[in-house]
Amino acid sequence: MNHESVQNNSAYILDVTNLGIDFGGLQALDDFNIQVKDREIVGLIGPNGAGKTTIFNLLTSVYQPSRGNIQVTGRSTKGKTPHEVSQFGIARTFQNIRLFKNISVIDNVKIALHNGMKYSMLSAILRLPSYWREEKAATKLALELLAVFNMQDLADQPAGSLPYGAQRRLEIVRALATNPKVLLLDEPAAGMNPSETAELMSTIRDIRDQFNMAIVLIEHDMSLVMGICERILVLNYGLIIAQGTPEEIKNSPVVIEAYLGQQRGE
Question: Which residues lie below 8 Å from residue 24, measured CB to CB, with a gap of 6+?
Fold first, then answer.
């Protein structure tokens, strides 16, 4: 299931330059730059309202930027729909879990796989052999993806019946099913206990290695960010105020004042 290396003119899987967006004349994000290499794990941190989720919405074309450029696997996302950007190789999870809670775990994953299926509408309606071949392959792949999180035994359970942490993991599995080159994780540890967070850290590394992809994550859990990110960008009021290695960020007076220091003082 490993991806082949992306071949494009850029050295980066994700290349964002001078990105900005205004809402009703108010500047929500300005001069945001990030370049992410294949297999790199990068963290975005900052206080609530700093602009982190806005960046993910821009990267996936939920919002169109007021200025700046975004390239995913060497292709510009300007004017593209979220579906088109997904086909470029970018996938995301959300702060608020978005699953089809009344259908099974495996069907949640198979829905994400349908973009890659090759049977026609007619073969699906008539249940022709080509349809069953694709469905069998999709079921096999969905189970393999669930096994990454040791969730294959839950395949037939309704997604909404899973504990919160398992629903979080299922959302990541569903994102992986779109075959991304860049995976955006929006607060993946939200609602998890310390042992689940530790397990998630290991799984994120495994995802990077097994699927050969870059990962960008937003997270408030500093143990997770410092434990797995190779590079961290810190946002405040829509601007990057610091970036560097976990050690550099941990010891930055600017960061401590704007973000980490707030937590320590609480």
Answer: none
> What does the pLDDT look like over 143-175, one tens digit per residue?
999 998 889 999 999 999 998 888 988 999 999
More confident residue, 82 or 135: 82
Distances (CA, A) of 23 to 12, 65, 199, 234: 29, 10, 38, 22
The full set of domain ranges for the chain reads: 8-89+180-266, 101-179
Q: What is the pTM of this model?
A: 0.84
Binned at pLDDT 50, 70 and 90, residue 128 comes out as low
What CATH code is assigned to 8-89+180-266? 3.40.50.300
